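Ticket 4471: requesting a sanity check on a complex prediction with cytidine-5'-monophosphate. Repro inputs:
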Amino acid sequence: MNDLAGKHIVLGLTGGIACYKAAELCRALIKEGATVQVVMTAAAEHFITTVTMQALSQRMVYGSQWDAREPNNMPHINLSREADAILIAPCSADFMAKLLHGRADELLSLMCLARPLDKVPLLIAPAMNREMWAHPATRRNVAQLTADGATVFDVGQGDQACGETGDGRILEPQELLDDVIAFFQPKTLAGQHVLVTAGPTYEAIDPVRGITNLSSGKMGFAICRAAREAGAEVTLVAGPVSLATPRGVRRVDVRSARDMLQAVQEEAPAATVFIATAAVADWRPANAADQKIKKDGSGRTPELSFVENPDILAAVAQSPRGQSRALYCVGFAAESHDLLANAQAKRLRKGVPLLVGNIGPATFGQDDNALLLVDEVGVKDMARDTKLSLARKLIAEIAIRMRARG
Ligand code: C5P
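Returned structure tokens:
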């Protein structure tokens, strides 16, 4: 992906053992298409060398406000004016305190103070010992920096370099990268609560066998990520898939269609958008055996009979909340042919304002897809692209439709 193409990030390092993770983060930002200008405090240089950061960023590293390499001798102005964001990772407790007071006695804090507030956002990735993180002074500083317009990322939890365990260590480079990418996405669903179903369901025949399908869950997980990036609170009800939960998304794991229905019914009252991407099994064995069904050597096969599963999307869409403006419902249709006609018919049958069609065999398990959006106004084609790109476009389309209906 090239999610940071065209973005210029000033990556500020302050003193902390987490500086070693900034090296990986620098690479990851560049891999996503960003250009990175590293600025290091004197304390940071105790933990990692400028040589490493220069080699990774392919730019000279700056560390002093007296650096004469800039013709006007004002690196704090020049470097901050060309940035799309200043990202301080790691940001020590001391540096947070310094930012809070608007102190500016070395290049990095000077740049943060001198940056145009409306054009250059400040992103802070704290890294410190758990006692320092929990200290009332740090709590106050986080709250005040946020009130001053900075974005303070979460911290990680677990083993710390000092040997203690708890909150305060820096997020992993990939998590920081995801948070930076999310920061730049338009917040079209801020204040919304999105509920998503994803993946297949598994319908037991006996304790060791069952019926499922080839849905990978990738489209639904991408939609969760895109909705979260767009500022929504997101709850994911996932069938059995082995995908990592997107950052900031609350996940409820289920197995059968009936489990999924129950979880969705528990979550739907809080949701304002419901997106059903799950490939729910249409039928389940009428009576799942308590014990493994054995071969008896006679060559006879077991008689399986089926009953229809509840239609989760239709149940939610036709509930009083689904019928009101409080909940916007979106269905998916995985078809093998006649996509348009099938999607239009399914939209009416399910009673949803928006139905998204895709060709099942062309999407199951793939990283890319193509979508056809069908609503009461007409049809919109989304050409083949990565599932994440399509998910972001779909979220933008949902936001437009929600705004239009008020
Ligand atoms: O009827 P069909 O399975 O083709 O409908 C697909 C849409 O309905 C998808 O959005 C799917 O998640 C949802 N669905 C559901 N519960 C079912 C069957 C489908 O929520 N039992």
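Notes from triage: Residues 193-283+305-405 form a domain with the Rossmann fold fold (CATH 3.40.50.10300). Leaving this open until the requester confirms.
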